[in-house]
From TrEMBL:
Catalytic activity: 1D-myo-inositol 1,3,4,5,6-pentakisphosphate + ATP = 1D-myo-inositol hexakisphosphate + ADP + H(+)
Assigned EC number: 2.7.1.158
Keyword Transferase attached: yes
A single GO BP: inositol phosphate biosynthetic process
Recorded family membership: Belongs to the IPK1 type 2 family.
Primary enzyme class: transferase
Record keyword Nucleotide-binding present: yes
GO CC annotations on file: cytoplasm; nucleus
Record-level Gene Ontology MF annotations: ATP binding; inositol-1,3,4,5,6-pentakisphosphate 2-kinase activity
Annotated source species: Salmo trutta
Entry keyword set: ATP-binding, Cytoplasm, Kinase, Nucleotide-binding, Nucleus, Transferase
Official protein name in the record: Inositol-pentakisphosphate 2-kinase
Amino acid sequence: MELDKMDENDWKYHGEGNKSLVVSHVQHARVLRLLKYSTEDAENSHKTTEQAFRHIQNIVDYSQNVMKPLLGEKFIHNGEAVKLPLDFVRQLSLKVQQERPESRCDKVMDTLSGCALCLPNLTQLSSCCCCSREHRPPLCIEIKPKCGFLPASRHITKDIKRKVCRFCMHQHFKLANGKWKRLSHYCPLDLFSGVFKFDLPLSVQGGECIYTCNDDADVLQDLDELAQHLRPYFLPSGSLLSRQQSSKVVLNELIQVIVSALLSTWDCPRSGQLRKTHLSEGRVTCEASLLHRDLLRNGNHCLPKDCVLDKILSTQMLDNLDIEGLSPLFKRVEQHLQMFPKERCRLQMDGPYNASFLEKVQNCPAEDDGSIEYAVGKVHQYRVAMTAKDCSIMVAIATCGEDDGLEIQPTKPRFTCSVSILDLDPKPYESISHQSRLDYKIVNHYLRRTQPNNQELDNLEELANQSLFLGRDRDGEDCTLVFHPV
Ligand SMILES: O=P(O)(O)O[C@@H]1[C@@H](OP(=O)(O)O)[C@H](OP(=O)(O)O)[C@H](O)[C@H](OP(=O)(O)O)[C@H]1OP(=O)(O)O
Ligand SMILES: Nc1ncnc2c1ncn2[C@@H]1O[C@H](COP(=O)(O)OP(=O)(O)OP(=O)(O)O)[C@@H](O)[C@H]1O
């Protein structure tokens, strides 16, 4: 990429999340990930080019030096921080504006710093000999799995957190607040159980979105349309199956391919003797899950060791105290930093994200010895776990060989896949106090909604009155969020 010859016409809108907007190159398999900030904060968020570049370099370092060793070399592409010509960025911002979904337009793309993260386009497979004559674009499925376990920490004061997972409780809160328009049937614990019989969320084809959970759409009709798109990939061209039958076959086949990619250990994909990570029954069953209990009870609860789901789950489980156990340690760190502000740097509260940071994460003492090092180690572990709870998995799939009517030859793989993990940004240290308040709100809302006469709710209120939760104002409402560079 020649940075001095950037032309906005070579790039197109690709997608965006809460914190960044992504454009992809029309010819080369590259994307640029640009930062966004809130329109309300537009003036305050103005960073110098050097600050913005440092922020992006921190993301690269964190991905490379912290998340990669934990999640596995093969799944991570940390990318490179780049400085782009300001004129190019301004023109690009104008060009993509009309493509942006309204729900994301509360934030604007950073056009002031000219800094971005350049990454490989993970919706595309790197060149593969068996696909070289393939004329169909690759399929790509993006899954945001969220937190895949029930907390077992002794610090938990609300029993419901041991029974219903965070995602399932949180979605009721999001529905009530209007962030979501309907409840999802997805439960992360089903995905991480290794027992597969459920619907998956999101799909993209060759960089063009062909199916996504649309709040207003009819799900079954949506899925039927998706199946028709995918028919050429999974069914012989002369298939006589009815539309309904073929939809079922196609979606089942798609799920099979995704599942084998999610469970593959990549180093030994065809080994019959896969090492497995066994999950205890308690951790894999969420009471709110719609997945048939019998299926979970009789299923073999294990993930192949080192498959992408196993790597993500074990990193998420670095949060072994739960936010309730972490809050007093966060306070300990806060007090220490108030007394010794210069310690912020030595303790690497905002990076640098290097081998020494990883060492603090991996070698944190098992028991609390009252030290600041222990508290910082647990805070760092919690932040790393938060990243793993919010990342996405990208599965790119290409059919192998020429279009031979998809005659099934058992010895020949029909698909080739690549699996990557994305969105591995560090979560700011300051976000921990927000997490504590949010946890209270989510659980409180869930209990009120599902068990209005629950005794636990009264206990919760009592706890709240004793101000055990950090930073909440008298009405129990959110205090102002402080954004801080990561
Ligand atoms: O709080 P959650 O679990 O809803 O996760 C947030 C995500 O919501 P989602 O689960 O996708 O509906 C949210 O994603 P969306 O905006 O919903 O796409 C962000 O990823 C947010 O992280 P950050 O503040 O941008 O660093 C995520 O926030 P944290 O990971 O900081 O909690
Ligand atoms: N390297 C990549 N290759 C292809 N697509 C990508 C890549 N990186 C990001 N994307 C796409 O852009 C979208 C937004 O990127 P990303 O998830 O990193 O943004 P975000 O603002 O950090 O998200 P969040 O809302 O989770 O904070 C992703 O959901 C994905 O579809």
